[in-house]
Design brief:
311 residues, alpha/beta, Rossmann fold, N-(1-d-carboxylethyl)-l-norvaline Dehydrogenase, domain 2, 2 domains, eight-stranded mixed β-sheet, four-stranded mixed β-sheet, 46% helix, binds nicotinamide-adenine-dinucleotide
Length: 311
């Protein structure tokens, strides 16, 4: 795997792409945000960590400028932009039958959607605990530690699985090959489906949300719906474990001081990923005959807010 592309090189794509580049690999950033792409090409990617600020030279291009085929494409657009990005890459022959596509986006159902473009034997699904931010075009903010867990979307391993693991670990991204990535994806999606829309609708930090003494009465029915839908999709989740994970985020020393990413997206005038979290759970619920009124309602409320805030 010589040629690596990061399709969607915002905050998280910037982190993963820059770390792989720094490990000595041939990496290209692909993004639709022209100002960002120009800034990276003109001044380099400015990276601010806890201890230093430095500039990394890394090539960045717009999707229509792609003119080569990649061995590995890591997809880190927001969920709603992934299919359009991949179709452009496919039309530009950036993806062929040997290319591995790895989705590291939050949310549910990416493997099924991407399999409309390439077979599942070429798709890898990852879940990550790394975080990243952007301070402006071409300016990354990288704090904290994280990990990556991934698996081929059809559950089988191949030599590319080992190769991707090697690349991630060369890049100090702390990766492991999972034997059940779906469980991890659903667990993270549960946390995101609870805290993201609630803190966004209520305009509260995670800790502020937890201060209401009956917050469990809001959280538990949401978890119950997600566990029921996951079970019907063949993924076994434990409601008590998920509740504990959510409550572990409440203290200020954990994530309590933060507004979740959905809050940041909405109040910066951008569409949210709600259709890939609560909206996807409600969609699966309808298909499977499982009632998901709480997830359905949160999806509607976020869309109501998008009508007000998205420019
Ligand atoms: P991001 O918004 O930083 O980048 C995604 C895309 O948004 C980029 O392709 C860029 O073109 C565009 N973009 C960003 N800022 C813009 C601006 N000001 N103007 C115009 N376009 C802009 O998103 P992200 O946080 O990197 O998230 C990508 C995926 O990774 C999502 O699925 C997200 O849920 C997931 N994720 C993010 C983090 C994180 O800490 N950022 C952590 C884990 C998973």
């Amino acid at each position: 795997m010589k040629k690596i592309a990061i399709a969607g090189a915002g905050a998280m794509g910037g982190r993963i792409g820059s770390q792989i580049k720094e490990a000595g690999y041939d990496v290209k950033l692909i993004d639709t945000w022209e100002e960002h792409v120009n800034a990276i090409n003109e001044k380099g990617l400015e990276i601010q960590t806890e201890t230093e600020t430095y500039t990394l030279q890394i090539p960045a291009i717009l999707p229509h400028q792609v003119n080569e085929t990649f061995d590995l494409v890591i997809i880190l657009t927001k969920s709603m932009h992934a299919e359009e990005m991949l179709r452009t890459l496919y039309d530009k022959n950036a993806i062929n039958e040997d290319t591995a596509l790895l989705s590291m986006m939050n949310g549910l159902g990416h493997g099924d959607r991407l399999s409309a473009i390439v077979p599942k034997t070429q798709i890898f699904l990852a879940v990550t605990m790394w975080t990243a931010g952007l301070r402006g075009p071409g300016q990354l903010l990288l704090e904290g530690q994280g990990s990556i867990e991934f698996q081929r979307a059809d559950g089988h391993a191949d030599e590319r699985t080992e190769r991707i693991n090697q690349i991630f670990n060369d890049a100090k991204l702390n990766a492991t090959i999972s034997d059940n990535v779906f469980k991890s994806i659903w667990s993270k999606a549960t946390l995101n489906s609870v805290l993201n829309p609630l803190c966004t609708i209520l305009d509260k930090t995670i800790n502020e949300f937890s201060q209401y003494d009956k917050s469990r009465d809001i959280v538990e029915p949401l978890i119950a719906e997600i566990v029921a839908v996951a079970e019907a999709k063949g993924v076994s989740l434990n409601a008590e474990t998920l509740l504990k994970k959510i409550e572990a985020a409440y203290p200020n020393e954990a994530q309590g001081l933060h507004y979740p990413s959905m809050h940041q997206d909405l109040y910066h005038g951008r569409y949210t990923e709600v259709d890939y979290l609560n909206g996807q759970i409600a969609k699966y619920g309808r298909e499977l005959g499982i009632a998901t009124p709480n997830n359905e309602m949160l999806t509607h409320l976020i869309h109501e807010l998008e009508m007000k805030h998205v420019k």
